Each structure stands twice: as C-alpha cells, then as structure tokens.
Amino acid sequence: MSLPQRTTVLIVGAGPCGMAAALSLNHQGIQDIVIVDAILAGENWSRAMVIQAATLEALNNVGCLDDLLSVGKKAKTAGLHDGSSYLLSADFSLLSPYTKFPFALVLPQTDTEAVMLEKLNQLGIKVWRPFKVVSLKASPEAEEQIFEVQFESGDMIQARYVIGADGAHSVVRNEAGIAFKDPNGDDNHDYGSLSQLALGDVTFISPPQLGTPDNGVSISLSNGSFTLLAPFPVSASLDKPPGLYRFVSSVPPEDGTAPHAPSAEYLQSLIDRCGPPALSSDPATNAHPTRIDKVHWSSRYRTRAAVAERYFARSSSGGGVILLVGDAAHIHSPIGGQGMSLGIRDAVSLGPVLKADIESAGGTPSDRLFEDWAARRRKRALSVVALTKETVRMMTAPRRVWPPIATLGFAVLRFFGRFSFVKRMVAYRLSGLAEI
C-alpha cells in the first residue's frame, strides 16, 4: 500500500518517542498525522527497561498510562551495592509528595511500544512500515512552507512539519545539517571499564538470591566494574518466558571489543568477573551458585554522549519545520535509565507547541514558540548528560584513584546512604520531576 502523498505532520520513527509524539498531537486535536518507521514492528526485542515518574506523568496526560501500569512492575527502590555490601539506594516511594506515581515502572521497551501501538490503533492512527527516509528538502512550492520527504521505496510525502524520532543515526537530523556531538567536546568517549556494556535478557538455572526481591533493580560495583540485574514483570499480557532477567555489565578493557551478540558463556564470564558474589556460578564464592540457562536476546553498547546543536530548524528557502526528539536529539550512557524517559517527555511536550503554531497559520511564521521549546528540552538533555557522566565517574573511581581513597569514598556513601533525605534526593534526580 502506498503512503499518503501529503500530511500536516510527518513523524519519522515509531519507537516510544515517535508514538508518544503522535499521541500528544492527537490529544491536542491534530488529526492529520503520518507516522513511519524503517523497520517492522517488534524487530528490536528489548532495549530500554525503565520509565521514570515524570514520564509516567506525561503519558498520563495524553491518556496512555493505565495499560502500561497493568503490565509493568512498580519498583519502589533501586539498590546500589559494592560487591555484596550495601552502599545506598534510590527510594522512589519517598516521592509521593511530588507525584502520583512514586515508583519507577520496569517494563521492556518492546512492551512499552506494544501498548502505545495498540493505543494508536484505537485512535485510528496507522504506523506505516517499513518506509525508510532517504532525503528531505524544501518543496519548490515555497509559499506553502512544506518539505518533500523521499523514501527508499520511491514514495514521497509533502509535509509542513517533520518530527525526527529516528534514533541516534537520524536521517532527518543529518538531512537538516544539524551537528550532533558531545557537549563537552569529548570525542574519545573513554569511560574506562564503562566504555562498553554487554546486555542480555536471560533466564537462570536457579533463581538468583540477591536479598532484595522488592527492589526490581539491583546494581553492583566491584573494583570499577558495574553490573545490573532487573527481573522482567510477571504478567499474562507479556509474551516473555518466566524467570526472565535483564542483565547489564561493564566490559573490562582487557576484553577488547565485546561480541555483537554476547553468548551465555560470555555473559556468565562477566557475571563471575564483574558481578556480586550472589550471582557467581563459583561455589567457592557463592553458597547458592547460579548460572545462565539461556540468552533470549543480547547486544553490546558503546558508551558515548551527544546532543543536537538545535532541536528545531526551518528551511532557509521557505520550507517547513523540522523538530527533533529522543535519541535523534540526545544520547548518553544508559546508566540511570534516563534515555527513553527523557525522549518521551520531549515528544509529549511538543504537542501543545505544535498546535499553537498550526493555529497561527496564515500570519507571518514565528519561530519563538519552537525556539523556547527547543531551548528548554536541550537544557534538560544537557543536565541528564551531566548526571550520567557524573554517575560513570563515580562508578569507575576505584580503577582511577588510590584504593584507600576509593574505600573511604564508599564508606562515606554507605554512611549517608542510610538517611531518608539522601534516598529521596537520589530518587528525585533520577525521576525527572525537577523539570515539571
């Protein structure tokens, strides 16, 4: 089936951010929307795992939260350990004075996308797949202020607004000539043992005994290494095997480049070398040894940070408007679970701004609304990049400083980590509520 030839708003990318943009626009009464994606639904089996409180607020505002809550796991805390020794935790339950959703929702990205896609279907909004954008240029009909967007299939759409939600390698951003680089000028992306991460959705021969079953998320540091283990939510609505966990580990520099799709053996070696004793397969280390049974999905991630120079552009030749959200606008370390949540808030916040511009049609185009929106969202992205870099520095400190100093630093964290105000502060920084 051929794409429509013309639309008011074209959204490129049908991940969580692109679909959130469509939901926000529809909530504002904007019906003339086309959303496309270069791949078929469900081809990315997992990826992001957490939706933060501020993002739950945003999704609630556009009527797309109840179904997510019904299938996700509400994590009230996230614990940080030095090996098997407690350091501190983020206690999201302490955020109840600030939000209706004092928790982090643990839900794999594919299930987030499935819920959002069903909501779009209910609203009569079709996602067109697979359609890959190859070029974007101002229409010769300059007085109409539209873009002509060409696809690999040979199809072409004319659109007044193009929203780039097409990821870190955004074609929309590249076609607009918008720079995408580390805000601190760091082109080396050297984060020590956290320069690479290995990820896997795994089941175990015997359930891990972490001692914190209510957390939902357990994070461990060991001599500058990092591991994370989070159980998938148990729900009949999720097409996932029982006892499935998301495992993430730093890759020791001496390993070189991690495998593209790490095997069970490689992930197990990372657990044994980098993880807490409670996950070890060695009976000499762990009184209840466990071992990965099966890898259902795995990947690797190279840690880097980049922010788009601009989130908004208008063609100098009189073409339409380009707007960037999600990974097309910013990327950073996944530690802290900030990326997808920040991108969804970008997208939801765009709805009222775009509506205001559409309603002002007929007069002289004004960029002030878009520039103000772009400045706010970019400022927030810079703050999140700074937070993730600060977290990475803390986690890699034992490899970079004299061991007694690192030990003292962890002792200080352990002492202050007992206090509720510290647990609330950490949770608040992670929640995204500071921007509301």
From TrEMBL:
The protein here is known as FAD-binding domain-containing protein
| InterPro entries linked to this entry | FAD-bd, FAD/NAD-bd_sf, RIFMO-like
Q: Name one Pfam family in it.
A: FAD_binding_3
What are the leading ranks of the lineage? Answer: Eukaryota, Fungi, Dikarya, Basidiomycota, Agaricomycotina
Question: Is Oxidoreductase given among the entry's keywords?
Answer: yes
Cofactor(s), names only, from the UniProt record:
FAD
PANTHER family referenced in this protein's UniProt entry, alphabetically:
BINDING MONOOXYGENASE, PUTATIVE (JCVI)-RELATED, TRK SYSTEM POTASSIUM UPTAKE PROTEIN
Tell me the keywords, alphabetical order.
Answer: FAD, Flavoprotein, Oxidoreductase
An example of a GO molecular function for this protein is: oxidoreductase activity, acting on paired donors, with incorporation or reduction of molecular oxygen, NAD(P)H as one donor, and incorporation of one atom of oxygen
List the signal peptide residues: none
Q: Does the keyword Zinc apply?
A: no
SUPFAM superfamilies, A to Z: FAD/NAD(P)-binding domain
* FAD-binding domain sequence ranges: 6-185, 293-386
